[in-house]
Amino acid sequence: MVNNSNIYRKGWIYFCGIVFLLCACKSYQFRESGFIVDGDGVYHNPEKYGGIGLFGDFVNYNAREQHGTRFDKLYPGDKKVLKSLGYNKGDIEVLFSGIPNQPPYYHLIGIGAKDSLLDTAASILQYTPMGKYHYRKMDVGKNTVLEAIIPSGKTNYALIYYVPKGESTADFEYLLEQNVRKPNRPHNFLASRTAVECGIDVQKNVDIKIPQNYVNRDIYTLIKVLKKEDYGESLAVYTLNKKDADPQVVFKLCPGKYRVVYSDLKHQEIWSEKIKVQ
After folding, report:
1. Would you say residue 50 has pLDDT above 90?
2. Residue 135 belongs to what H/E stretch?
3. Residue 187 has what pLDDT?
4. What is the average per-residue pLDDT within 89-112?
5. Contact present, 42 and 110 (Cβ < 8 Å)
6. Could you tell me the pLDDT band of residue 224, with boundaries at 50, 70 and 90?
7. Average predicted confidence (pLDDT) for the chain
8. How do the residues of the chain divide into helix, strand and coil, expressed in percent and rounded to 5?
């Protein structure tokens, strides 16, 4: 005779086990629409967190080199650091996780709260000529972890920096100088770069308009102008295009050969064209 109660109990245990595994495997969520442009070194998000200043050696993730800035996946070790700092998966969203593309190879994670503000109860309020921020330091395994929770308009975000114990943390001070600002000090990290390095007398206005059959108004897009160099290409200027906007811009450029690239925020190319500025 089949014992229905045993079957029911085993089925319930199996179901609970599946739910537990799914919950255990759930990772920290990343905030959508975050990006950096190689050569600019600033994190931007058109939905929230207008600009977070990083070093210029923060570039987009390179799978072959196993370093760079990621917007969809944590590095090994990141999860342990976040858990040790007390951050629950349901409370925060990761903005980015990065390793510079040249020494020193420290780890840097940016996070924000899903709702309201990050909790600063476990941190010490610091006052500097630049402004104020909340700070804490702790050891996690073989690493030294430094965290700064920084006010940003009506919200805040955290920069979490970690290196093996005994290594220099000097770059963390620079990151603070970049990002800790007085409330009345304007934030200069706009999602664009327009300055060029040649004199005004030789700069040329270049009108760039994306062909209509390539325009995508449903997403945020980028227009980047890359200068041809002996070693490849370097970033000259760029700008962010909002949704439902006609992606047309006028840049001032120095004489030289360039490639104009129209892409999404993950730098998937939609259209490109080579131009020459006399």
Report:
1. no
2. strand 132-140
3. 54
4. 96
5. no
6. very high
7. 90
8. 15, 40, 45
Q: Has residue 19 got a pLDDT over 60?
A: no
Q: How far is residue 245 CA from its own chain's centroid? A: 23
Write the CA distances from 46 to 72, 171, 182, 247, integer angstroms. Answer: 17, 26, 22, 16
At residue 28, the pLDDT reads 97
- Which phi and psi angles does 136 have, rounded to 5°? -150, 155
C-alpha span between 268 and 252 (Å, rounded): 25
CA dist 277 and 101 (Å) reads 31
Q: 176, 130 in Cβ contact below 8 A? A: yes
Tokens of 138: 């702790």
**Are 74 and 27 within 8 A, CB to CB?**
yes
Tokens 């993730």, residue located: 61
Contact (CB, 8 A) for 197 and 58: no
- Enter the DSSP assignment of 165: T
Query: What's the CA gap between 242 and 15, in Å, rounded?
Result: 45
DSSP state, residue 75: P
**Cβ-count burial 207-239 (b if 16+ within 10 Å, e if not):** ebebeeeebeeeebbbbbbbbeeeeebeebbbb
- Tokens 């390793």, residue located: 99
Q: What is the pLDDT of residue 8?
A: 52
CB-based burial of residue 80 (10 Å sphere; 0-12 exposed, 13-18 middle, 19+ buried)? middle
**The pair of three-digit structure tokens given for residue 105, joined into one six-digit string:** 């190879």
pLDDT of 161 higher than 60: yes
Q: What is the mean pLDDT of residues 183-189?
A: 57
Least confident of 23-37, 38-52, 174-188, 225-239: 174-188
Tokens of 151: 């006010």
Spatial contact of 90 and 81, defined as CB atoms under 8 Å apart: no
Bridge-based pairing of strands 232-241 and 192-193 is antiparallel
**What are the φ and ψ backbone dihedral angles of 32, each rounded to 5 degrees?**
-70, 160
